[in-house]
Amino acid sequence: MPCLVRHSYGIAWIFAHSYGPMPAIVHRSVTEILSCLHIPMGEAIVRLPIAVLSVAQVFLAYVLMRRLRCTRTQSIIAGMVCALLPSLVTDGHYAWGYLTIWLFFGTLALWATLAYWDDRQIWHLSIASFSLFAHCLSNCFAFGLPLTLLMVWLVLIRRAKQTRRQIISDASFGFVLPCLAALAVTAMSWLGTGGGQIGRLLMKQQSGATGSSLSGMLEWLIVWSAQYGYLFVVPATAGLLYGVVLARRGDRRGLLAVWAFAAFLPLLLLSNPSRIGYPGAYLMEPVFAGGMLAVVLIAQLWNALPPQRLVLKAALAGVCVLGLVHLGLGSVDSCLAGNRLQRWTGVTTGWGTVTPDTGIKAAGWYVRQFVPPDAIVIPLHTNRGMEAPVAEYYLGRRVLATMDVKAEHLEPLLATMADHVDVVIVEPVEQRMVDRLSGFTRVCTFTRDGQPVRMIYARPAMQLPEMSQDVAAVNSEYDRFFSPTSVPMPLPAAPEYAAKMALYRETLRHLGNGQAVSAAPSS
What we know:
It contains 23 helices and five strands. The protein has helices spanning about 1-5, 10-15, 20-35, 45-65, 70-85, 85-90, 100-120, 120-135, 145-160, 165-195, 195-205, 215-225, 235-250, 255-270, 285-305, 310-335, 340-345, 360-370, 390-395, 410-415, 430-435, 470-480, 495-510; strands at about 375-380, 425, 440-450, 450-460, 465-470.
């Protein structure tokens, strides 16, 4: 997302976005405002929209629980739980952050619809309509909330008597219109770009992500547990089941269970999590709802205890505090400590983990400073390194990179492309692959705490300066010289880039199909 915003490819890229146009619109709007103010845009600014929405989500959790007729104390605790949920914390610092945008607008739509139910204010209805539209265009898997809101509107219409015609009119504006508009935008995005949300779902289907099996269901339950950890998964799961009971009683707090199951059951029954890159990301809505219903269930248990049973109440309070501490520890560990405490917490969200500086930014500084614009650069990567958007963001040019390259494909890929590239960027684990090649010499080594984290190899004829530098010192230089103050910026490419990239993709296609590849002659 930061790469697409910085190097905009026109209006088409917004609607071709795999998870809908809304994440792109949010990021681009913030960036345009900062461009007008000439504020340098580094990584902190890139994460700003998601950070703001994440904080707002905690407040939304509070006001939603109040609309669900929970007490002020229960709502405050629900906000605390929202702030500690590992999935939400993980996505809250993730620069892409489409899950945060998706959940934010979904929560806002549910709150505004309930607020309209209570107060019949037109501004509540307007917020509900826009938020539902934005929610549906923030993810390729936006089914749970519309089904929940459909239930809300059907109940409103059924209960209305003299005002039924007015309620139907309001339902058309607050529910039917945004859903139809979102469907129209989604269809037009697919027909116009071949991508968008429908394109993403079709790609998932073609990759084998769909299908029903007992092993797949069990794996989904393991993923579900990992979003909470060993302790909090118990009240969260029990809370969802209790929410079903509340829904059957007509208690509006049960809407959270409807939302959760409407989002989770299609995944549980019709998809294969082993074929999904980050399955935990698809559970953002159920995880949020489960966290809120855990508070509802615990409050019910607390109120069920007689006042004189002080020991039991103290024990319940102690268990709850321990659960919150354990949940917070899991969030911190999963996001900041690289899951070192996973055996103790049971928490692993699966994406967005902060990792130590691996020298990607420093490599960007070196390439921008010294590598001529007509050179062909290849950064070796898997799905956790210098993938195409990351490499292009920092290197400021088109490079031979894509997404989700498998580790076992790196060596044959490099062997095929070696005669067609001028500069190779690798991590220490890939160093031996380049050392085996002739025609390259190491020109740069970036270190962190004295240990190599990224190397740059180049052809001797380029006469690039040799250096060894700590990443921290170089990163500050990058921020000083290469943080833009306006967007969009051009993304240049070497003259022979298109032909080399076609060969790169063809090689990966052969490797993915299990076919042998041979080095093609250099042009």
